[in-house]
From TrEMBL:
The chain crosses the membrane at residues 50-76, 88-108, 128-156. GO terms for cellular component: proton-transporting two-sector ATPase complex, proton-transporting domain. It comes from Desulfurococcus amylolyticus DSM 16532. Residues 11-70, 92-151 form the V-ATPase proteolipid subunit C-like domain. GO terms for molecular function: proton transmembrane transporter activity. It is found in: Membrane. InterPro entries: ATPase_proteolipid_c-like_dom, F/V-ATP_Csub_sf. The keyword Mitochondrion does not apply. The keyword Transmembrane helix applies. This is H+transporting two-sector ATPase C subunit. It is a multi-pass membrane protein. It comes from the Archaea. Gene3D superfamilies: lithium bound rotor ring of v- atpase (1.20.120.610).
Amino acid sequence: MDPLAMGLMYLAAALPLAGGITGSTTGMRHAASVGASVLAEDPTQFRNVLILAALPMTQTFYGLIQMIYIMLMYIPNLPLDSINMTKALALIGIGLAGFLAEYLSAWAQGIVCANGIAELPRTKGSNLMSSIVLAAYVELWGILGIVFTILGLSLLG
């Protein structure tokens, strides 16, 4: 067993969580900053702003699920003699794919939610459900990030 390869595998496991955290933070910051402007105009929209601004948070949980799966289900079940730099670099590639899926999904979802928030005062909140549905389309890529990570791990062996 190569200790450097093992360390890189644990680094790879953390990548999807890092993508989820940074993407969620970016998406929520964008949506919440638009929400602050909307609330200055119409404070009765607080509940709707809160719901839409919180939606990009879910990708952090998806990244956490991927990290836990890699650290508890994949790495411990590897035969020690199979842990090498090739497998570690392949796992980093899978981790980077998870990172990008969660980061980009949360970032784009924040933009969709911010646009929904911006329209709340004009529509008197009637666009909430349609904004949530549109944000769910973008969220699908975060969910698919979990699927692709697990599929990639099964192909890696």
